[in-house]
Design goal:
90 residues; single chain; alpha+beta; 3 helices; 4 strands; elongated
């Protein structure tokens, strides 16, 4: 499912900060699944980004592939829980 997603956020030379993470958390709450990619100019690795995200948020990194991360979290809005509804039925 994640392979079909268009990149929603990217990380470049400005790296990671709380404002960026807040935007990502809000996007994941709306969509439940968000793809992030690292630009060639990024000064951090996908492993460092994954560690930062999991340490500073409730998001789960469900896939790390190359310079791309796939993030998941159940939406706070029950009407938007289309992905988590299917996942939790597995």
């Amino acid at each position: 499912m994640g392979i079909d997603f268009v990149r929603f956020f990217s990380i470049g030379k400005h790296g990671l900060n709380q404002a960026w993470l807040s935007e990502v958390v809000q996007a994941v709450d709306r969509r439940e699944l968000v793809k992030i990619s690292l630009q060639q100019s990024a000064t951090v690795t996908t492993t460092e980004v994954a560690a930062y995200i999991t340490k500073h948020s409730q998001l789960t990194v469900v896939q790390e592939l190359g310079r791309t991360l796939l993030l998941f979290c159940e939406s706070s809005n029950p009407a938007r829980r289309t992905i988590s509804h299917g996942v939790f039925q597995l």
